[in-house]
């Protein structure tokens, strides 16, 4: 036992716990903590979060919801969720002055790659207004907002088709009489759809499922009795019943059929109402059920009994067994490698377990495995069966099985184009000790990027980050921080 361990043990005899760790330390951290005030701050008031948005020219913009100003005298950490936030939209290429950037009031916000869907109840902005309807607008960088007619009061959830041509507003209000499907082309075309049978309109997602097909032309709805109805979203459109199906279903790649997984097997139900096709009669476990594309073929992966199986999603071939015994599938490598765990999702949690490549164990109670771009390394959070979502950041050279511990208490990491790795380390608990570092595995060295920072976003087309700097108990400062070259 070292001298500092003895001293620490003496100090802890009265009530704290101590873990002795004789393993090699993480890589040395070089340099001094940066002065964060030197970097451009994008928010003007305390930020709740930050998102990235692309404009029509694929240039990045930062979207920053800023917390409302609270009444004087409230304790720190207290928020009033019904007060509208200020939504700040800041161009990043070229960088504009955040102080002169465009802002919008926002009570409810949903974001896609290119659009913001901003919802607000005007009565919160002007108490003289008695109408509690929700106003929706779509905001795209460099374009005027597109306003839609008011929607019924409630706490809205907006479903958006992948082509962003159709939306469905679900009000989540006890007064709601319908779901509203509407076109986003400005035509004003809409259709009121019935609340599903047996569904509480104030809690529509407790027993109901809803999904738009990619074109937005149909909405799939499952009611409390598991009956599925396919609605056309255009005004005057029809409806088609697909009968009672398992609640575990996913749309196939062409959005022309539902793939269902249950004790009755794996089946394909075309949404045009034609006959169901049984892909595998053996029971299908829903904890491992997904569609992947491997070697140009779209396959359904699922667990049946103890084994992992695959079958073409179109049913063109019989099922095959990939792994005889599996608890859960953790990741699929760039070469089609299956990284799996023999631990079930109930052992440590979904996505957490001791991981194997073939018969070789490469992870112990880990999570978030990722291959390096050159496929030579597997990076992951080790000993991460923790409620704080963190773990020790490890890097395994697959050719030799040499393992390096890169950093402790990491929640987020990502690879740079030059092969180095960014990591948010010392990230538990939240506080000024959180930091973002850049790691060079070849040099076995880490350098400072940001201090008092817990999360980051890459700024496309640059070598910069947007980092969330800890402010108080609940908020953030959003600063643009450069990454030093290798």
Placed side by side, the strands forming the largest sheet appear as 27-28-29-30-31-32-33
N-to-C span: 38 Å
Largest sheet: 7 strands, antiparallel
Query: Which class of secondary structure composition applies to the elements?
Result: mainly beta
Number of beta-strand segments: 40
Helix amount: under 10%
Mean pLDDT: 91
Give a quick precis of the structure.
With 486 residues, this protein is mainly beta. Strands 27-28-29-30-31-32-33 form a seven-stranded antiparallel beta sheet, with no helix packed on it. Strands 1-37-36-35-34 form a five-stranded mixed beta sheet, with no helix packed on it.
Structural account:
- The chain starts with a helix and ends with a strand.
- It contains three helices and 40 strands.
- By secondary structure, it is mainly beta.
- Helices cover about 5% and strands about 45% of the residues.
Secondary structure topology:
Elements: H1 3-12, E1 29-30, E2 40-41, E3 51-54, E4 60-66, E5 85-91, E6 102-106, E7 108-111, E8 116-120, H2 122-125, E9 135-139, E10 146-147, E11 157-160, E12 166-170, E13 178-183, E14 190-194, H3 204-207, E15 209-212, E16 218-222, E17 227-232, E18 239-244, E19 249-251, E20 257-262, E21 265-270, E22 277-280, E23 285-294, E24 297-304, E25 307-312, E26 320-323, E27 328-332, E28 338-341, E29 353-357, E30 360-371, E31 377-382, E32 391-397, E33 402-410, E34 412-415, E35 421-425, E36 435-440, E37 445-451, E38 453-458, E39 464-471, E40 475-482
Parallel strand pairs: 1-37
Antiparallel strand pairs: 2-40, 3-4, 4-5, 5-6, 7-8, 8-9, 9-10, 11-12, 12-13, 13-14, 15-16, 16-17, 17-18, 19-20, 20-21, 21-22, 23-24, 24-25, 25-26, 27-28, 28-29, 29-30, 30-31, 31-32, 32-33, 34-35, 35-36, 36-37, 38-39, 39-40
